Amino acid sequence: MYDIAALYEAETLEHALALLEEHPEARIIAGGSDVLIQVREGRLAGSVLVSIQKLDTLRGIALEEDGAIRIGALTSFSQIAQDPLIQTHLAVLGEAVSLIGGPQIRNIGTIGGNTCNGVSSADSAATLMALDAIMEYQGSGGIRQVPIQAHYVAAGKTALAQAELLTAIRIPQESYRCCYGHYLKYAMRNAMDIATLGCSVNVRLTEDKGCLERVRIGFGVAGPVPMRALHAEAAVKGQRVSGETLDAAGKAALMDVQPRSSWRASRDLRLHLVEELTKRALGCSIRHAGGML
């Protein structure tokens, strides 16, 4: 049985925002793959829920006039992985969401839910960090564009105000133009498991494929929130493509993270994974971009 105090079904975006204003204690439910589990386990027992399942305007992927790729918050992981725009320009994001749960979860789970639960282990989060994603919030006061680094405030908490919804995630053209990426997830099992650590890298090489012109490195489960590895990025930007550059990235990434010990892994194991996955993901991204190692 599910202990739910009330369930309201929004008919439009405006209706959803009005319901959130009317019920400040309410929680959003979309696919339900996260919220319903927490209700069943008792962590959200007695919750008031606002369903946004009917809001089809929040689904789909489109190329905008400024070149940004806009992903509706209710777009499922399966839709993202199969979309031609994603496969052409953001293959790394398709890779990342294809590692979430099993087929049933990927069919109902949404990119908005995955990023709004605020957890560091969300498989899409590290890649969206590496893509400099912009989160589109909407409330009664209008639309806010929030860089993804500001979206994550603390463990389990985002910058969304109580009566705001995430309506879309925008990937700027600068983040995918001539860019190539790779996501690596370390978990105890190959499927249906939460990440022990995740690392996503996005690079652009110089025209001769010999140097790193642009580098973005994102992590999940390397701290209380998903994060960018700014020291590692700075250490290798402009450097020659080489094994030494990969090693430098791995070492520098240790300055960016704050992993903790948990029942899944010790802090020391996670630090080892940070260094190793950084090198591997960066190497794969360079090869995808046509570089030789």
Topology:
Layout: E1 4-9, H1 13-22, E2 27-29, H2 35-41, E3 47-51, E4 61-63, E5 69-72, H3 77-82, H4 84-89, H5 91-97, H6 103-108, H7 111-116, H8 123-130, E6 134-139, E7 142-147, H9 148-151, E8 152-154, E9 157-158, E10 165-171, E11 180-186, E12 197-205, E13 212-220, E14 227-228, H10 230-236, H11 243-253, H12 267-288
Parallel strand pairs: 1-3, 2-3
Antiparallel strand pairs: 4-5, 5-10, 6-7, 6-10, 8-9, 11-12, 12-13, 13-14
Summary, kept brief:
With 293 residues, this protein is an alpha+beta fold. It has 12 helices and 14 strands.
Q: Main sheet, how many strands, which sense, barrel?
A: 5 strands, antiparallel
Q: How many domains, as an integer?
A: 3
What is the residue-averaged pLDDT?
94
Query: What is the beta-strand fraction?
Result: 15-25%
Biggest sheet strand order reads 4-5-10-6-7
Q: Given the structure, what is the number of helices?
A: 12
Order of helices and strands: EHEHEEEHHHHHHEEHEEEEEEEHHH
The CATH class name of the largest domain reads: Alpha Beta
- The CATH architecture of the largest domain can be named as 2-Layer Sandwich
Distance between the termini: 55 Å
The chain-level structural class is alpha+beta
Counting DSSP E segments of at least 2 residues, the number of strands comes to 14
Q: Kindly provide the radius of gyration, computed on alpha-carbon positions and rounded to a whole number of angstroms.
A: 19 Å
CATH fold description of the largest domain: Uridine Diphospho-n-acetylenolpyruvylglucosamine Reductase, domain 3
Uncertain residue segments: none
